[in-house]
Each structure stands twice: as structure tokens, then as C-alpha cells.
Amino acid sequence: MIRTIAAIAALAVAAPAFAQTTPSSGAVLSLSQVEQRLTSQGYRVLEIERDDGEFEVKALNAQGQCRELHLNLRTGEIRREEADDDCYSENRARPGGRR
Description:
Helices cover 30% and strands 28% of the residues. It is built from two helices and four strands; from the N terminus they run H-H-E-E-E-E. Strand 3 (66-72) and strand 4 form a beta hairpin.
């Protein structure tokens, strides 16, 4: 009985936090949610666009390599990742201040 009450209490506390980080089945992630998820995975996000029914992101991976990521709008799952050579433009400086 005590275990059951403890389990119910734990769910009551965890459910609101889970609901805030997991979109409902029809909700599209916000740009800040996409950035937060990728940052937690070791990426440095440079640009996010919504294109062709997905998020297209320019980012640097943990090794500093320029990557183009294609993410599911609702889950944030990375569907495709490929090398890109276009992370540094006139408006974005390279790490260390170089352009």
C-alpha cells in the first residue's frame, strides 16, 4: 500500500515536468525547444529554418565540424545529418573570432 502511494505521488510530481518537454502528438516544437535539445546533444546551433515539413539546422558538432541536420517537427528526432561547408558566412564568425 505504501509503495503504491509513493508510486502515485512520484507520477504526480513527474507528469507535469514530462508534459512540458514532450509535445502533444500534433504540436510542433518551438525553435527554442529544438535549440535546447541539440545543445544538450553537444551541438552549437547557428541557424534553424522550417523547410519542407521539417526543421533544417546548421550547427557545429562537438568536434567543431559544420553539419546540416534535418529534424522531425514534432519529436525533434534527427532524420538526417550531413557535412556542410556553409556554417561560416559574412554574418557568422568562426570560433575564436575569425571570419
